[in-house]
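User: I've been going back and forth on whether these two constructs are worth ordering. Before I decide, could you fold them both?

Assistant: Sure. I'll take them in the order you sent them. The first construct and its structure tokens:
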Amino acid sequence: MDNKEFIFENYSYDSAISTLSLCYRFSEGPCFEERLIFDFDERPLTPAANEALDRIFRLIFLFSGISYYKVFIPKILTCHAFPMDRTTVEFLKNFYEKGLAEFAYKNRISLRNHFQFQSALVPPAAPIALALPRKTCVPVGGGKDSIVTIECLKRSGEPVILFSLGDAKPIGACIDAAKLPFIRVHRQLDSGLLKLNQAGALNGHVPITGILSAIALACAVMCGFDAIAMSNEHSASAPNLKIDGAEINHQFSKSLEFEQNFSKYIRNFVSPSISYFSLLRPLSEIEIARRFSKFPEYFEIFRSCNTAFRHSPAERGRQWCCNCPKCRFVFLALSPFLAKPDLIGIFRRNLLDDQTQQDGFAELCGLREYKPFECVGEISESAAVMSYLGNHLGWREDAVVRRLNEDFPSLREKDPAEYRALFEIRHPHRVPQSYMAMLDASG
């Protein structure tokens, strides 16, 4: 079977069933059809809005192909559906190469200069001005970060609409608790992808936040809002490790680099009328945890553990698994701000008094080879909190806290100023001034 070329075959939108179909194939190999179902009432669109929407559908089409391309990672990627301008080709190349950096590392391959996009090049299109309602969309992930964004904007009187990709239970529970209008999109991956993965095809992490961002952008036009406020924190830009000068960042599509590139692309080639930024970029994960601790109505329903978001609903966990980097990090981040019984009540156990968790917490604190490939805070954040807990009357005798502070002078002797610095505003960020005022007021 010849899989030397990955082909973006075509895309189409059926307004009667609100479904976007995305078709891909490998040369002389398997074909795939992914579907996106926009589960909300669409507003009537002007010809200009329809043109902008089609450009966004193309971007979704190009971004979503990454899930299928990685199966065989051929050197040639060809778009049959439409010609692309050179800027789009370079933008896409960066998204694939950096978005698949972790995938490449774990599969022991290199994607640096590995592939090229082939397309009949055309001049770039001019952006389209749109008349959109003054409203901010917040994508909901089910974790503490998007909750902090929601409550900040809601309590500032900002008109807000919530967005979810899929129907995972923690996301729905957080939307219900927020009591705000919402829209939902369902993503149906081609079943053939799962079969290939089960048969041993290459598999691994993809930049899902980038794909979600493009889908939310389409909703801005279809539903009607002029701003998308993500909940990506300062530490999302920190790489997990560097190899031969190249950074590998599990959270690439949550990083400031992606945010800048994506925003610039929207402004220059789609529409300057839609603003895209992360409200929490000026904050550390620990400051976000401090702010989240003010909202006890979410304590029993929020979830960051990946088991809750598995593709198959039947395999989704109903509670925190308490044995993964995300569970450990959230527990650690919240420990300075919640009463100990309340935190243990959320997780149903004390992770910091469990010796089997010691190595996992050591990874978070930079006491092992590299930071876990998960959406967790910077090493410096975890280390500063662990050091702080070593002097905290309520936590210092817990097994993991005691042992790590005893065994590692770098924790025991850490300057307390490093912990205090976690609550300061961080730069650079792209938060508009009006939203920055809301963030300051909610602190």
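The second construct, handled the same way:
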Amino acid sequence: MPPTPGYSERGRFWCQLRRTAGHWSRIAGMLIDMHHHYIPERYLELVRQDGKHWQAAFYHDEALGKDSVVPGMTEPPPVGDVARGVFWMEPGIHDVPTRLGEMEEMGIDMAALSISPLLYYYFAAPELGEEVAQLLNDEIQAVAQAHPDRFVPMGTVPLQHVGRAIAEMERVVREYGFTAVEIGGSVQGRHFDEPEFDAFFRRAAELDLLLFIHPGVNPMPERLQRYHTGNVIGFPTETGVCAAALIYGGVLHRYPNIKVCLAHGGGIVPGLIGRWDHGWEVRAESQRQIDRPPSEYFKQLYFDDLTHNDAVLAALCSIASPERVVVGTDYPYDMAERQPVMVLDRAEAAGVLTGAEREAVSYETAARLLRIAV
């Protein structure tokens, strides 16, 4: 097998061994990607046919030779729009054969297939939000069913209407056996400590579903416009605001068994947990919904390893423990980690992870959270 840039000897070995053995679940050293985005071809076709109904614009840039889809708009943004580049689609976002080939190159044995955060559709009327969620979940299930050894489906729900969100969550569990749902960090400016969302988290806990929280908005668009800071600062901050609502708002206190995984290494959360504890100790308003320091509830959270920095990953593993960390690549966006095996190689070589801890991060914890029989 010829060398692939960014793909370690260990990764190539397991890739070749999987081909030889013919069944991924019998092979140690596998890798499960918890953070792996998808836009179904069917959705793109429907938007091209009737963008007004789906409240989305699809367009092709001749100069760049790239396509883009923009939910929430029915006309393409003007040329030169600073946000425009966020929406360019690489082939792997919607083409499954391309995705499978790139997964092979990256050393990914299996991925939790989740929609692009562009498609949360929280902006839409509840009826359209539900229609879109059903379409996307059906398409994700079809891909996972066609490739059961490569994908596990992760659903989406119309959280702008909690009743419809719960109904769709129950449907995908009942009809398809989904074990995970992806949600944003907030819903049109509303945070998850609001009473209206409590029924959703209660039902997710009852169903034993993993909630993978991926930010979908920049919380400070008026300030974070230049230099891609809406993503590199805004998204991690949105995750922090979300986690604060779950912790200080008592969601994790009321549902101690709920499974929550935060994308992008938890964003700003790990670096602030000491400050959160101090605030809880000295401010009465921080104690209103919880009877223990935030760090105690922090121990209930899971995190993907997408930090883009070995020292930060080491700190995350130290603060959260390796058993609470899973692999996440953010495929196929430009902010993705294209060398997930090498990230683990370096962490193990540096003593950040023992061999057993590496296996936990690589696949064991993800398999348990997603209820994959390995």
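Notes on the second construct follow. The longest helix spans residues 126-146. The chain has one domain: 9-39+92-370.
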